[in-house]
Amino acid sequence: MPSTTTPTLLPADDPRALVDDPLAFGVGARVTLAVMADRYVELITDALASADAGGLVLETGDVSTYAGGTEHDLLRWLTQLGAAVAASGVHAAMVVHLSRGCPGEVVCALPGGAGPRAVETPGGVRTGHFATAEWALYPLADEVTGDVEPDHMRDIYTAIARARDNGTFVASEHFVTRLAGDLGDVLGTVVAGWTGVGRSVQHVTSHLTVSLNSPSHTAGEVR
Amino acid sequence: MPSTTTPTLLPADDPRALVDDPLAFGVGARVTLAVMADRYVELITDALASADAGGLVLETGDVSTYAGGTEHDLLRWLTQLGAAVAASGVHAAMVVHLSRGCPGEVVCALPGGAGPRAVETPGGVRTGHFATAEWALYPLADEVTGDVEPDHMRDIYTAIARARDNGTFVASEHFVTRLAGDLGDVLGTVVAGWTGVGRSVQHVTSHLTVSLNSPSHTAGEVR
Questions:
Q1: Which of residues 43-62 of A touch B (CB under 8 A)?
Q2: Chain B residues within 8 A of A177 when measuring between CB atoms
Q3: C-alpha distance across the termini of chain B, in Å
Q4: Where in the sequence is the domain holding A40, given as residue range(s)?
Q5: Between 20 and 30 A from A133 (CA), which of A14, A80, B180, B209?
């Protein structure tokens, strides 16, 4: 949930008034589902139709689907989306780009000093589907007004430690951290790491490539 | 080409001695090819076999393939890889993660102060295949020893200006820049933006999701 700051007590032009509004703060994801089967259109359409997008603003493009809203709603939607694709049994890649603290593209529409935005860590939900993934986490801005001093390495170590604790951490690879386990645990780890860094840094992005139903995965790996 | 700094004239423990070695500097890419057809294994295997990987170190995993080497070799390989998939006529996503200046994962194996690494901008090669793409570019470290002062916004504006000049820029979207055009021009724009920022910032990453042969693309868009 958003922090307990009450926006109405702040002057209208104070950027901190925007922190509690996930869309004004630019909390969102872009997702590409790439289903490796001739009937990919049907499978992608079905997955998008079955996932609960409650609370989210969705915009579908030809490269990815954008979803804006709270971290909690995003994690639920991403998990249901991935689980629907996984349930088809077909090999698929799910590419997830998370961002918060910088609505807009080249120039943030949100001024520096608006954040950070502290939320409770959304809990992941087990799906019964095994996934492997490669994860990158980027704290991108240090100009904050919160009580916690920015410390990128502390926050990234915390994110890695959580992955070790919940068993999703596999290894450090070139440029990424390799994760494996239940799809819900993998996505929960990534969203928790992203929101965790966001407690002290306004602009945080994260990129994740997930492999589902890979022929390289053995049946024994499915939990 | 690498800068004209001669590594042998530097003390062995000077991190600047590593700049001219692309592998020591962590110049590389991770690529995921997701081909949306039942015969995806054959198409991905064929594309990997046909692309010229000369000069590159390759490691294939179940989520992505890592390639390490010079920016020039990486652009040639990425372009040939994507063109081979596009030539199949099958809809596919190509996910590219570029990184330079930070070999390793949580902690850079390269000390701060090693870079930046200045190289000539590799030229893109036209492929005859139309692509759309979403692009994010991240300057991640400011501690540099070069002659050019770091200025993230200047470098990102320069990258966007190049995309406008060569006609690949389409629009600013949530969290990304949308590109479209010949696959070779799109990849050339991205690699040029990444190396351009790298003239003043040691650690620069970039993430690109490319859509090939999308049913949303009309025949008129193919150049």
A1: 59, 61-62
A2: 105-106
A3: 30
A4: 35-103+120-193+208-217
A5: B180
DSSP 3-state assignment of B44? helix
Residue A103 in contact with partner chain B when CB distance is under 8 A? yes
Is B30 part of the contact surface with chain A (CB cutoff 8 Å)?
yes
A182 belongs to a structural domain: yes
- Cβ neighbours of residue B172 closer than 8 Å, sequence gap 6 or more: A104, A105, A106, B178
| pLDDT digits 0-9 by tens, B98-124 | 999 888 655 666 766 677 888 888 888
Give chain B's domain count. Answer: 1
Residue A188 lies in a domain: yes
Interface subset of A 194-213, CB within 8 angstroms of B: 205, 207, 209-211
Answer yes or no: is A6 within a domain: no
Please give, rounded to a whole number of angstroms, the shortest distance from the CA of B11 to a CA of chain A.
27
Report the CATH number at residue A61. 3.30.70.930
Tokens of B109: 């194996």
Residue A139 lies in a domain: yes
Which residues of chain A fall below pLDDT 70? 1-17, 104-109, 111-113, 141-150, 218-223
Within an 8 Å CB–CB cutoff, is residue B9 touching chain A?
Answer: no
CB under 8 Å to A218, separation ≥6 — which residues? none
Q: Indicate yes or no: CB of A174 within 8 angstroms of CB of B26.
A: yes
Q: What pLDDT digit, counting tens, does each position of B12-34 carry?
A: 566 666 788 899 889 999 999 99
Report d(CA B185, CA B210) in Å as an integer. Answer: 12
Q: Which residue of A has its CA nearest to B213?
A: A62
